[in-house]
Fold these 3 entries.
Entry 1:
Amino acid sequence: MSDLLRPHLHDAVAEIEHQVRTHVLGAGQPLDGDYEHMVHQVISETVAHFVDSLSRDEARGRELRTSELRALYTKLGAEAARRGRSADLLQSALRLSGQIVCRRFIKDAYRFSWPRETLATLTDSLFELLGRAADAGAQGYARQQGRMASDRAHHRTRLRDLLLRDPPPAPDALTAQAGAAGWTVPHTLAAIALPPTSRTHPPGRVLPPDILPNWDPPAPYLIVPDPDTLGRERLHTLLAPLGSIGIGPTVAPSGAANSLSWARHTLLLIERGILPSDGPVRASDHTALLAAARAEDLIGTTATPLLNPLLALPPARRAPLLATLLTYLESGDNAVTTGKRLRVHEQTVRYRLRRITELTGSLFDDPAQRLDLMLTLTWLVHAPPGRAAGKRTGTAES
């Protein structure tokens, strides 16, 4: 039977190669010389192997050639994965090749008056061969994808660590590592600090692929490119089940370590109950409080001489006076605005201000002390002595 088909080998190879290039491979990215040669080799070897397999002679040679053909399809599948081509292209090419060969079989069956048994044998042998080829190609594709994913993960880890290096990396070094990781260097980024419990249930499968996570340290975190672009708010929804998160300021890539530092500091204040824990908290929304927290020890020392009469009051009396003084200074010494912000009558504000003056002997109107005083009050209002946290209140002094 192989003798009948052998004279038509060249024509069959030419037709299959033309159709596969035109209807399968030509629809995707253009072929380069090496890949084009590989496609030609695979088609030629497949057709030759099929014809040889129909011969009753040289069984050992057929086994050897089957092994070589399997290796060839494994290599073709791996090369398709490496070039970013779809795995479906190989399957489509094999289906198209099978259709072409079947049409040729039917045509030759009529031309040479083959019996039905001959045509059935040819068809069965063809699809058995194509099935083995498809399996080998799929295995090669999957293995190469696995190797590429492992390499990419390694490069992404190195990229993440490079971004957090202090001092920051040179732009050329960052660009090179980003290229190896398949990551585009963004104009801006921000770090997100996550609670320790997120290590046990990381949402890695649903995170956008451009985010660089690290779930391993006791304090997990994410590096998020272009955090202020449209759609990034959906990320907060994905992270909501993890609990409280602190979002660092948006910075250039060279400032990634700084963004992570502030994100973690924000999360620390959430855990202490000083910042709200009912959703994502942005460091940029609490600049004064974060700055004051960094100087917590200094504030605890310097606040005593100035505000000691207020700090000596019981918490229920101290809290509204401190909140009123801070809000009054923030409002440009406007009692009406202060009352609206605290939701109390302006006369209540004026009464509290008089009490503050009576207790401290100061009007707190020295411009040179104003900024320091506001920073100190910011910390004392949110983290009053003797308890973890407090909120501004409009409750009247008792």
Entry 2:
Amino acid sequence: MSVVTRTPLVTEARRGFAPWAGLTVLLTLGVLLAASADRWQGGWAETAARLHNAVLITVPAAAAAGCWQGGRERRRGTEELWGTVVRPPLARFLVSALPTALWVAAGYAGAAGLALLATWPYAPGDGPRPALVPTDAFVSGAAVLAGHAVGRLVPSRLAAPLLAMAGYAGLGVTAAAHEGAGSHLDPAFPVTETSVPVWWQPMAMAVWVGGLAGAAVLAYAARRRWTALLPLAAATAAGALLAQTGDGLWHTDPLARRQVCETSVTPAVCVNARYAGALPQITEALSGVTGRLKGVRNLPSRWEDRAGGPRDDEAELPSLTPLGWSFVRGRLTDPEEFAREAAGALMVRGDCPDDRVGVADDAVQDYLAPRPARHGFDGADAQGDARRRAETADRRAARARLAAMGEQRRRTWLSAYFAAWAACDPSGVPAL
């Protein structure tokens, strides 16, 4: 008959509080992500940003879990008994704290993995961005060790919730500052979907946070407490590097500056390279507009979708971001409205004065992208005063005249219309 001997570390990892702490982090992060799935599930960059920004929640929760575990022996009344054990204080500390830290880190990593799997079927452009996940998981685990030391030192059941609130407030205030060296030392520093860290930033952040946590553990539990100076020195060096680099820690994603285009139609349809896979459905959504513009001259060269706005010969594509509005899980939520907004963008040119010819603009936009519910709006206008009723009648008549034109005559009129706006000359819009 064989006897299986389990080490105390394995026993702690398999039973008691540690697995529940990891499960709590997994479920908490899962609930937060599920509640906002529309805003990240359709993009790899959005998923990465959402996971990183969740550190604002997971780190205080992890510190509170470590603090609660650190006060376990005091609550049980077994502190004196543990003091008689031959095992060194640091070993006893790690046996109690390390399983919880590992489970919490695993809970974060598990939630991140599930989020990446949930994004995979819907992301239409770039690939996964897991660069920050190992560091964020490590930071969450390090928070457990620091919290455990607090739990050993502070004899109060309120220590854990108070530590969680203080951690959340501290990280949140620093993250909200966005300026100064302190904000770049914050592991919960908020990032956007276009932010990409320099290659060494995750490692430096891990050394900074891990060094502080290690110094706290050694200062509390090590026999030779001067050894705490070693991780503290490493943390200081990493922190100085992060603080001095400042805004240089992050740069704009190169993909955000690139576009992919469909040039078989006029105007050409371009979308940001981060959503390259959405180009076919966007081209299809705009097919009614481009079909009606076939043969028309003086059009913008293309719809563009990049930072900085359109050039003089371009029109701006309706924005796909932030996700969760017009673009959800890789699909346009309302292709007809998207087409209508894109048609309206054709009539906006650079620095042209905003003294538009309302009736003609209305007729052109209605012709390029008709709105089925349009007449309901007109009916509401028709109930107003005499001026509004006259304006409504003029708009209806202008739409009818443009729609009734022959193909060649309409192309000629539209060519003159777009030529007037290309020249920033509203007075040159032909009569309708």
Entry 3:
Amino acid sequence: MIDGVPAVLAGLAALMALFVIVVGLLQNLVYLVQLGLAAAALIERPPAPEPGLLWRRYADASPPIALLAPAFNEALTISQSVRSLLSLHYPNFEVIVVNDGSTDETLQVLIDVFELRPLHRHYDLAIDHKPIRGVYGAAHQPRLIVVDKENGGKADALNAGINVSRAPIFCSMDADSLLEPDALLRAVQPFIEEPDRTVAVGGTIRIANGCRIEDGRVIEVRAPRNLLALFQTVEYLRAFLMARLAWSRINALTIISGAFGLFRRARVIEVGGYTRDTVGEDMELVVKLHRLMRDKGLPCRVAFVPEPVCWTEAPESLAVLGRQRSRWHRGALETFERHWRMLFMPRYGRVGFIGFGYILLVDVVGPVVELLGFILIPVLWAMGVLSIEYLLAFLAVSFTFGVVISVGALALEESELRRFPRASDLVLLTAIAVLENFGYRQLNNLWRMRGIWQYLRRSQSWGAMTRKGFASR
């Protein structure tokens, strides 16, 4: 007995606490490895060329690209978004807006603003999707195609866009996101350098909240004024500039953001396009491509390029942010369930060992273990099983790792991209990188636990994602 606690119970609780600590340390070790790999990748990369040199170097060799922009009830912002896309600096591209059964005036706004007329355009039904009701074009904007179809969700709309498109490369994005003018030319480089291996490329997603935006362009980069948006700014730096750059360097990347990703059309058609009965269609597509290429014994590269930037609006309320994070986590679990046989399988190389091992550790086991840790460790201390020294050491190591990783990601951003010109913004984000470990990180874990519960209940709901839009910024 230990102060009235049965020895067997105390021993079991101590083993559970040890398991929690080991898993937590292992997660933090993985994050440190990611930070190191990302730093090495940035050191090895040549300086990003200026736009003029970039055009001279890659314009003639750049393959045609179709930008696919699914839109559902985007009447307030769709015209500005489309104008922004049409003004991108790329030699050969078309913009395909897919109106996914909007119940507002999205289609009519497009017809009125761009003087659209019904267009006869042949396309094959290579991928299943909801019926297309009409295809529209504009004589004065030959690069613009508008597809009107029955509502089927984002994945279904993208599948329709893939069928209608003709370019060998397509870019999937959100209709309300903003691409920097040279984003396509920067993102397409892996397809030019390794055309036989490259099947997908992702770029950086940045938070536009707080920035000054005019005519669909980010004119001045500023840190957000909303606390939740500030937390997300640091999160996005950690997720993209650290995690995805690291896994891309060793060819173990399993996700490309649905807000901005380039894909080889023929390979995507070969795997059946986007899966419609999942909320993690972006991650699932990348995993399907890895699996296809490995099963065929073909070389495969899924790359991340940090320089091309897509700006998006981050949620500024707890309710909307919580729904988003629960949905993201649910999507990761659905992808793991569909492809768990890739885990640790030699056939799938680093993707099976590192990519899927990371999903198992961070997404499948991580939230449960972290929640157990925050519950179990203090309980064991109260029971007298765990000394106060061990408790304090666990908390100190956990929070120190979190701070180091977040500040490290911010340092990488400043050393490579230098997107925040004002020193006051960098000081603020550094403080946020420390502060997020005391409350926000734990709240995020609760949202992930809700995602696990929704996954177990087989929920397919996206939840309302209220946005303010860019027009007033």
